[in-house]
Amino acid sequence: MYWAGRWGEEFMEPENGQEGRQAWGRTVYLVLGAEYLVRSKIEATIILFTVVLVYPSPLLRECCRFVKYEPLLHVVLYQPEIPPNTGNIGRSCVAVGAKLWLIKPLGFRIDEKELRRAGLDYWPHLEWEAVEDWSELAERLAAPLAAGRAWFFTKTATRLYTDAAFQRGDLLVFGNESSGLPPELLEQHRERALRLPMRKQVRSLNLSATAAAAMYEAVRQLGVVPQ
Predict the structure, then answer these.
(1) What domains sit in the chain, N to C, each tagged with a CATH number?
(2) Between 69 and 109, residue with greater pLDDT
(3) pLDDT for 76
(4) What would the pLDDT profile of 142-169 be if each residue is shown by its tens digit?
(5) Which of 46, 64, 151, 201 is 20 to 30 A from 142, comparing alpha carbons?
(6) Alpha-carbon distance 166 to 217, whole Å?
(7) How many angstroms separate the CA atoms of 46 and 21, rounded?
């Protein structure tokens, strides 16, 4: 249960206020107490989720979130607009073991039936998070970004996606359906821009199809067989 104490120490800072420190203190004691008072794993899980309900803080939910799998890749959707596209991409992420990141604002609610329908019953198995903006994502994934391990997909790129050398933990970044990625973001990462080949009669490819092609090219290069 080391993680509970670590998160408690990290977030019980003065700027969170006395009330916040007290709440986090109670939370840490409750979670740590579960290790000593409860022998059954099932009962421990019940107590843990009870704590989350009593203190429904986003920080607490994050520290108590169970990781379903270690991401092979990070798939980033910048302000996606169409629920079925995001649902289908989520399904592909589960298939290859990638984590899905959604950058707000979104053009839909996470609980919309179109999103769930496209993702079918795979959504509960998906590792995913929604962040407020690109700055928050850049902070959360600072290491791969600093190492130049992010790839930005756009039809204006000159480099084909098959020419990139993908590595485990890379970011695959896709723009929204109507306007793509912001020009300033592409300008900043122009040398990391990639495109899928298509004939001139086609203006653009479907977002979920593009993401699936990119993910599976990365999987092919990595020599990983999803299990």
Answers:
(1) 2-63 (no CATH), 74-222 (3.40.1280.10)
(2) 69
(3) 98
(4) 999 999 999 999 999 999 999 999 999 9
(5) 64
(6) 8
(7) 24
Let me know: does 1 contact 44? Beta carbons within 8 Å: no
What is the pTM assigned to this prediction? 0.71
Separation CA 155–CA 198 (nearest Å): 9
Distance between first and last Cα of the chain: 29
Report whether 49 contacts 119 (CB < 8 A). Answer: no
Tell whether the model's pLDDT for residue 205 goes beyond 90.
Answer: yes
| DSSP for 104-169, written as a single string | SSPSS-TT-HHHHHHHGGGGGG--EEEESSHHHHHHHTHHHHHTT-EEEE-TT-SSBGGGS---TT
pLDDT of residue 117: 63
Q: Under DSSP, is residue 151 helix (H, G, I), strand (E, B) or coil?
A: strand
Torsion angle of the four alpha carbons 32, 8, 50, 62, in this order, in degrees rounded to the nearest 10: -130
Helices (H) and strands (E) in the chain, counts: 10, 6
| Share of residues in the chain with pLDDT > 70 (%) | 66
Handedness of CA 218, 221, 225, 227 (dihedral sign): negative
- The helix (H) or strand (E) run that includes residue 3 is helix 2-11
